Amino acid sequence: MRERHLFGPGPSNPYPEATRALAEPLLGHLDPEFLRIMDETCEMLRTVWGTSNARTLPLSATGSAGMEAAFVNTVHPGDVVVVAVNGLFGQRMTDVAARCGAEVIAVEHEWGQPVDVDRVLSAHPSPAIIAAVHAETSTGVRSDIAALGAGKGDALLLVDAVTSIAGVELRADDWGIDLGYAGTQKCLGVAPGLAPFTINDRAFERRVEKPRSWYLDLGMLGGYVGEAGLKEGGKAQRTYHHTAPTAMVASLHAGLTRILDEGLDAVWARHQAAGDALQTGLEAMGLELFAAEGHRLPDLTTVKVPEGVDSAAVRRELLERYDLEIGAGAGAYAASVWRIGLMGHNARPDAVLLVLAALADVLGRA
Ligand SMILES: *Cc1c(COP(=O)(O)O)cnc(C)c1O
Question: Between 3.90.1150.10, 3.30.460.80, 3.40.1030.10, 3.40.50.980, what CATH number should domain 5-11+264-363 receive?
Fold first, then answer.
């Protein structure tokens, strides 16, 4: 099969370093060399999360399992959970929270708009949890998490950072994020399969003693990453919980190393420059952007399908003629919006030119 240019909402093309790591000889999950890689991975994850939380680790499952872990460990039966819903992933949060026994208050927004902080903060006088998606991949919108953190009061702030981590500014500790989850296949530039997770002491102390999920019980995962991951300067005490997906962790380690070698600020700036160039180019082509101006993500651009154009036919032609995949719209916008990701390794000027040229050709606007 030929190599694809993956510009959809995910997975994106991995960083070459992360791909090469998958071809290295496999390590055992208790090999000291692997344990070193795991420790370093957790440490690098703290940097990209912007946190000093000891409990920061890659969960062995995709981003959605990170979402499930966040709620199943913190929602006590009947807890009020306020969820900001401005797209598909906010909707998914309401479903997951409800299944964990929460009394969910969904604060609905028009798709394409950022989270209305005042409405979310005034939705209930004393919620147990306030949950929001930082970067809504379904709409291409970034929301103000710092403002939610400033006004959260006694509530825990639970944040989805799947499409923001290592792509746009993210400062978990400074912004008051108590717990959050991410994914590897978006801006981290690694294949799908792990959920970088972080939780602070405040949230961990309020956790459910025996959550309904055995696999995602954070109380049992301390031994999995080793006590060193939990106590600064502590000695690694590993207990078997499940077999670590060693190849995936090694790949994440390689991706994170590559990101931090470039520098997190430089990586954010590279995503911003690529997104700006793509959005300017699309508008120059006469196309209209979907996400509200001033709140557009650089790493995921939503653009309206022009009147009379068959959305699926364009995507098919891009794939067949250019090996280039862009995403359809989400939910009600499946046929009327395209989603173009510039994540991780794809956040580059040559990638922007390729997308713009291919789209102009297929649309006959060259
Ligand atoms: C992709 C994504 C998820 C889900 O991650 P999976 O790895 O597909 O399970 C959750 N939230 C957001 C914002 C996403 O973009």
Answer: 3.90.1150.10
